[in-house]
Amino acid sequence: MKWRLLFLFFALCIFINDTSAVEINNYVNDYAEIIDDTTEDELNSILKQIHESGESEYSIVTIDSLEGVSIESYSLDLAQGNLGDSEKNNGLLLLIAVEDRKYRFEVGRGIEYILNDAKVGRIGRVYLKPNFQAEQYSKGILEASLAVRSVLLGDETSDYYVTGNEVDTAVIANWTPVMLFIIFFVIFPLLGAIFKKKKSDNKYFNAAMGAVILFGGPRGGSRGGGFGGFGGGGFGGGGASSGW
């Protein structure tokens, strides 16, 4: 029994050492070694330009595995107090976990109004996801970073600029079956009952409207609370995560 406890103790120590070994020391921290040298040079130039503009301190971290930790917790712990100005709270982290096939943009509180969840979510869907699916990691990270730069610096003439207001066909495709179900099996039967009975009571109408609000309204993901940075910027859980 004792040797089993000893084994678990050493295994825990190894796990802690592995996760704590990941640090943000540079603009590009490629622990997973998925970025080629040429692209890394380009990224360093782009991220340096963003940093020197004063808009944000943006860093990229690639790792092999999250080791069972959620990417939201991992990225928040990594970014908190390590990225961004302590007064501006303008840090930005792109974390990529290759074996888990997940990525996340962690956005500092001070730049959430510029890089809101919709914008970073779209940047990920347009530039990261398709390139990562094709195992073109360098290309995806470079294009996503060009998009980030164009938004932060307000360069609307850039081919990579996104507003976050574009219609996302993937989202529409996912919602279409749900909306059809609501229309044909909830709204139409209730409206039919109303016209058939010709009652002034509006309970059916209220029920139909309630169904529309319940199933058709916008839904937001859970957001973390505010945190204060120690020597770096603060993060409040803003950003976007996805996989490929």
Main beta-sheet strand count, sense and barrel state: 5 strands, mixed
Number of helices: 7
Low-pLDDT segments? 1-19, 166-176, 208-231
Overall mean confidence score, pLDDT: 77
Strand content: 5-15%
Radius of gyration based on Cα positions? 23 Å
Largest beta sheet: what is the strand line-up?
A: 1-2-3-4-5
In total, the number of strands is 5
Structure description:
- This protein is α/β, with parallel strands linked by helices.
- The protein has a domain at 28-165: Diaminopimelate Epimerase, Chain A, domain 1 (Roll).
- 50% of the residues lie in helices and 14% in strands.
- It has 7 helices and 5 strands; from the N terminus they run H-E-H-E-H-E-E-H-H-H-H-E.
- The protein has helices spanning 2-20, 37-53, 71-79, 117-133, 137-152, 169-197, 203-216, and strands at residues 28-30, 57-63, 91-97, 102-108, 235-243.
- Strands 1-2-3-4-5 form a 5-stranded mixed beta sheet.
- Strand 2 (57-63), helix 3 and strand 3 (91-97) form a beta-alpha-beta unit.
- Helix 2 (37-53) packs parallel to helix 5 and helix 4 packs antiparallel against helix 5 (137-152).
- It is globular and about 70 Å long.
- The two termini are 42 Å apart.
